[in-house]
Amino acid sequence: MGHAEPGDVGVARPAVNPQGAAGRGVGAYPAATADPVAAGWAALRAFFTDGVAALERATEAFQAAEPSVRAGGDPARTTLWLLGLATALRYSRRPEPMEAGLERARELVNLVARTQDETATIPYRTHVESILRDLADVVPAQAQGFLTEGLEYSERTVRLARKAARDEWLAPALASRGDLLQRLAATRDGPTIRRAVVAHEEARRRWMSRDLYGRAQAALGYGDALLSPSRRRREPGKAETVAREALPIFLNHRDRYHEASARLLLARALFALDQSEALDEHAAAIALFHALGCRWEAARAQRALG
Predict the structure, then answer these.
(1) For 211, phi and psi rounded to 5 degrees?
(2) How far apart are CA 225 and CA 218, in angstroms?
(3) Is 56 exposed, middle or buried (0-12, 13-18, 19+ CB in 10 A)?
(4) CA distance 42 to 36
(5) What is the torsion angle, in degrees rounded to the nearest 10, for the CA atoms of residue 139, residue 142, residue 146 and residue 149?
């Protein structure tokens, strides 16, 4: 998400990474041209509004670009290609393509470390973590392994971001860690979910005010943590506020994918508060996912209220 939540997103988080690369929103990437990499990014942006047909076009464009990208050897172009392909494969919600996306995301981190330095990898490391988190959702039987790997990776990401002392990197790194901890809390004790909430709350305090879109995507994971059954005392009122703050930002960006995720979070919060509006929001989220052709997300949303 996306943090892409079916059930956030980040980019976000863009991912486009739910926080996006370096915290950028979907619109910060190159416009469509005859260049297949730019065409892939244009189609990937369209996915969040138009649905899976655009995602398929994005994947095809990025795959078609591989020979020219690898032959060209331009680090900047290779970075855009790897990030785009990894993101497109991530949103397939199918294990094999997602694992291929994970390989591309790792390759991207290695490329940036080699051509720049390890500090510059921080915004790309969170993309590796997002794919591991999503794989845990898509392949529940292997969730423990994916989450453990993600948290080990995240530990270094956060350490690097704190050392760099740049909030635009540290905030998404903390949100990513919070998402991983929230997922792991389903199989662990109370302290794990408390750590997830703490990580998300620090991320929100540090999030750059100009990046409302990235913050909204990260908010979906925060809302999930607030509603986690692993918490002794859930906070549906706060989760409702978080969802209502995020929703207009997605509407403004015409991001129907994360709009659906925000409506689902709102439905869950309202349901916990015994509010009848929960059913309307739940139905709206499911309808949006179906309209986008996101069958895995729609099926998960269907089960969200128990």
Answers:
(1) -100, 65
(2) 11
(3) middle
(4) 10
(5) -170
Question: Counting Cβ atoms within 10 Å, is residue 294 exposed (0-12), middle (13-18) or buried (19+)?
Answer: buried
The CA distance from 84 to 220, in Å, is 22
The encoded tokens of residue 248 equal 């207009």
Angle formed by the axes of helices 75-90 and 52-72, to 10°?
150
- Supply the CATH number for residue 275's domain: 1.25.40.10
Helix H or strand E segment including 101: helix 95-115
Tell whether 134 is covered by a domain.
Answer: yes
Any residues with CB less than 8 A from the CB of 50 and at least 6 apart, and which?
A: 292
Residue by residue, pLDDT tens for the chain (306 residues) are 333 332 333 333 333 443 343 333 344 444 445 799 999 999 999 999 999 999 999 999 999 999 999 999 999 999 999 999 999 999 999 999 999 999 999 999 999 999 999 999 999 999 999 999 999 999 999 999 999 999 999 999 999 999 999 999 999 999 999 999 999 998 776 689 999 999 999 999 999 999 999 999 999 999 999 999 888 889 999 999 999 999 999 999 999 999 999 999 999 999 999 999 999 999 999 999 999 999 999 999 999 998
| C-alpha span between 95 and 244 (Å, rounded) | 32
11: β partners: 18, 19
Q: For residue 73, what are the domain limits?
A: 21-302
Distance from C-alpha of 55 to C-alpha of 98, rounded to nearest angstrom:
13
Residue 7 inside a domain? The answer is no
